[in-house]
Amino acid sequence: xxxxxxxxxxxxxxxxxxxxxxxxxxxxxxxxxxxxxxxxxxxxxxxxxxxxxxxxxxxxxxxxxxxxxxxxxxxxxxxxxxxxxxxxxxxxxxxxxxxxxxxxxxxxxxxxxxxxxxxxxxxxxxxxxxxxxxxxxxxxxxxxxxxxxxxxxxxxxxxxxxxxxxxxxxxxxxxxxxxxxxxxxxxxxxxxxxxxxxxxxxxxxxxxxxxxxxxxxxxxxxxxxxxxxxxxxxxxxxxxxxxxxxxxxxxxxxxxxxxxxxxxxxxxxxxxxxxxxxxxxxxxxxxxxxxxxxxxxxxxxxxxxxxxxxxxxxxxxxxxxxxxxxxxxxxxxxxxxxxxxxxxxxxxxxxxxxxxxxxxxxxxxxxxxxxxxxxxxxxxxxxxxxxxxxxxxxxxxxxxxxxxxxxxxxxxxxxxxxxxx
Length: 421
Ligand code: URA
Hints:
Layout: H1 3-11, H2 18-30, H3 35-48, H4 52-63, E1 76-80, H5 88-97, E2 103-106, H6 117-121, H7 133-143, E3 145-148, H8 156-168, H9 174-187, E4 192-199, H10 208-224, E5 228-235, E6 243-244, H11 246-257, H12 263-281, H13 285-297, H14 300-311, E7 324-329, E8 334-339, H15 341-353, E9 367-370, E10 377-378, E11 383-389, H16 396-400, E12 403-406, E13 415-419
Parallel strand pairs: 1-4, 2-3, 4-5
Antiparallel strand pairs: 5-13, 6-9, 7-11, 8-10, 8-12, 9-11
Helix pairs in contact: 1-3, 2-4, 3-8, 4-9, 5-11, 5-12, 5-14, 9-10, 12-13
């Protein structure tokens, strides 16, 4: 077999066999297939797509490129495809754990304009995000929740391919996203998987039809591997909740765990939490929803958060936000009709909340807190957004330009579709 023949075959839109896909992945991992050849192959996939069968084969090959964890207990994982202000994991994990659902989760750091859960949790003084597999399993058994950065040698094929996708403009390819996410979810050993697939200008996918295709194939792959998988497609055209930036998002998560969360964040947490609990306990979603709402109101979700933070060495009373604060005001009356999530994410990164390269050091204290959301009425001079900053600053006008104010706007729908329920 030759890589050039495989590239040629794909170019002629012919279906690749599992052996051919295996040859490509093996060759790329052992160095016999060079970066420039793999770039050509990935670009073809980006342009021409893959059939469902090819995506399923590719996922299986990537999954088997490394270690597969066996956690020894039933766990439920929630995965988000990434968005601005998305702090749902920090709320959902203790919320469902407070109802007896085990969460054993590996999360990533942020790169670019989307934040990573690990960075957010590290804004809590002392919070440790690495542990051995034994410690990880022990903590899950003892308190029903553990969350770490990447551990072990899981899906090395994805690590190497993702690094190349990042620099070849192939990050947004649906077949490549599906195989990347699902190979990692399957390898990390979760019994049930709930995927929050974000669609909109602040997300990886901004087209609803593509999002549905991605959701369909991910659900199919999960179920084929005996991991019941549900995908919820949610709106990412404005930041989720009010806070964007690491410690600011943790503080908002704490408020939500105490039952005082912003409307959209609360709605999403209740929806995803209900699905997680219903999958774990095999009960109807409506029944699970009652339990979820109860534990948000009676303090049990918050207490589980404190237990979890303490178990990982964190001090939940020491979460600092930047002392310098600036309010950006509306220049006219009307209704907020758009808040550009992507630009808010980029500006938060420019303040120091995110990274441009892996080596950049983030400032956990900085970011934004929105004072208005889409659909809110606004008067001239009302505060639209509050900037928390340290050394780095952003231009007020750039922040203001993220907001569109028109005569009238409704509140957008947050939960757009569900696949696999
Ligand atoms: N998240 C992943 O893990 N992989 C992708 O390809 C996209 C988002």
